[in-house]
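I had to read the description of the data format several times before I understood it. For illustration, here is how one protein appears when written out as sequence plus structure tokens:
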Amino acid sequence: MATADRAEELVDQVRSAFGRARRLRIRGGGTKDWYGEPPADGSAETTLDTRIHTGIVEYDPSELVVTARCGTPLAELEAALAASGQMLACEAPHFGAQATVGGCIAAGLSGPRRATSGSVRDFVLGAKLINGRGQHLSFGGQVIKNVAGYDVSRLLAGSLGILGVITEVSLKVVPAPVAEATLRFDGVPEQVALERLNRWGGQPLPLSASAWSAGTLHLRLSGAAAAVDAARSALGGDRLDPVDAAAFWTALREQSAPFFAGDVPLWRLSLPSTTPPLTGLDTSAGAGAGLVEWGGALRWLRSDAPAALLREAARSAGGHATLFRRGQGKSGAHGMPAGCFAPLDPALLRIHQRLKAEFDPAGLFNHGRLYPGL
């Protein structure tokens, strides 16, 4: 794809919207439009399409840093890294061929490798942002040792565009593993799977991903060939064909696996990895309908149970629950749809409000996408 530096056009659009008090909907490929809260009033928004601003600005494999514009297809960036034997360690999901780099950062979602390699936020080194006043600001840097403004850059990961237009981002990359193997263990109850995952997580094993569902546990090993081979011998299980293994983890990352099909709301619970199986919450048809990732720290549920019940169960276990996909069911009290993210306590809400006011005082960007009123 040809590169295009169209930052000034994006700045002009923001300044025009600011002058007319017209809200903007920041959108790239639209592959994550369903994530987060729906726009408070979509008819009052003008779409700002980031896909006009594309291209890998700088990439020196020896520096382990890549800088790309917001509209660059995520697949294009990953292909460039793969050609040099490198990758984005967070294994960010695409959810569609049109996924962009800017959307990857704004959504802040990570894939199966997150538990052992880190989240999207952990790999953001620097960023450029158009704020609500139409100012084009730079934060952080393009080298790993640069920490100036680092927290501001990382703040953009998962912000769903409410703070401004991410025009460019610098990301730390890592070498792709020399060897990988995926092991399958059948007939494993959820509690047993959790015990194994926590035990293995405390051992010097080259773990890079795990997934349990419907009595089957998958474990991915990544690293030096000798380390992977030794772990395979120690752990047992059946090794998947490499092609089948790649397809399995891609389907898990992209939520195209059978578990994710259907209209029942999909809940994402972040919990301490040692939390026992949560019972009485899964209302989807079929046995063993839950799915466990990240060594036990991420639990997926298909459930029509009230949002308050699910969130209280997660809170009591020391975690939180997110309504990841609304589906066609109802998840709120008295049949009203639940909010996507767990409600903020007053202190955190004030922090969010102050950040929004600082970056976007007129409330131009993605109004209500993260929390109502922001």
Residues 332-336 have pLDDT under 50 and may be disordered.
